[in-house]
Amino acid sequence: MKYSTMSYTFSKQEEHFDLKKMLEFTAKHMDGIDFVRLHGREPEELRKMADDHGVDVVCHTFFAKKLVSANPEEQQEGIDDCKRGIEAAVTLGAPVVMIPTPGQKDLDRNQLRQRWISGLKLVMPLAEDAGVALSIENFPGDKSPFVLADDYLEAQSAVPGLKLTFDSGNAGSGEDPAESFSRCAPHVVHAHFKDWLVSEQPQEGYRPMLDGRYYRSALIGEGDIDNRSCLKAMQEAGYDGYINIEYEYNDYDPFEATRRAVEYLHGLE
Predict the structure, then answer these.
(1) pTM confidence score
(2) What is the pLDDT of residues 203-230, one digit of tens each?
(3) Pairing mode of beta strands 214-218, 207-208
């Protein structure tokens, strides 16, 4: 498998975030990088930095929360955000873009999914014209519109060409991640691996998920997600894309967390 640095894993711990060091690490230990946002830089500058370090940009992740607004003017702002994100991906040389799809407290997850579908229909032509794959991910949370394979496949049916960035941990918060991947495999263009500690009861630092249980971020290999079966399903499907290493807790700095996770996953292959 090919493993990619997720810049979010590094930027989340601000005291450790240094673009140059992250790219040096990526060049030495990883197969590519997913720039989650632009980190205050112009895409041309990030592209040059990546090129100077011999690092391939394999995905660009950006946010477009207003894409689901019921207000036409606000929705247009979301479309404009997508246009800028897609243009940035072209400059970065990223073949895939991903738009996170968080839940909203004031909307049922099924209603919100319909709003995302409507918005994504408007954005798809922009991605097609630019020659990049437009993807969403399984996003965690009991209000998230996209957790299950059925959630994504409903959107893919309504928006032909919409791809999936498969997240093993997020899928695992609602159903078996290996089965979820297998059902979506023909549409998966990128992936995230993460892990969770799971509790049957509420605990401080744990968040409610779609399966009715409570989850807290853990390093890949130190939580309760069945990453072994998920990797096997990906291998059997012939998945040849990249897998981001995602880590959201602070037991390890991002360099150590990413190194440990990749070593663990290689041991499962």
Answers:
(1) 0.97
(2) 999 999 999 999 999 999 999 999 999 9
(3) antiparallel
CA distance 200 to 219: 20
Cα(268)–Cα(112) distance, integer angstroms: 37
Give Cα separations from 25 to 4, 33, 37, 172 (angstroms). Answer: 11, 10, 19, 29
DSSP label at residue 205: T
Q: For the chain, which residues make up each domain, given as ranges?
A: 2-268
Quote the distance between the C-alpha of residue 134 and its chain's center: 12
In which element (H, E) is residue 81 found?
helix 72-92
Question: Taking the CA atoms of the chain, what radius of gyration do you get in angstroms?
Answer: 18
| Tokens 């700095």 -> residue | 253
- 246 close to 8: Cβ distance less than 8 angstroms: yes
- How many other C-beta atoms can be found within 10 angstroms of the C-beta atom of residue 11? 18
- Choose among 246, 209, 203, 180: nearest CA to 109: 209
132 phi, psi to nearest 5 deg:
-115, 155
Q: Which homologous superfamily is 2-268 in?
A: Divalent-metal-dependent TIM barrel enzymes (3.20.20.150)
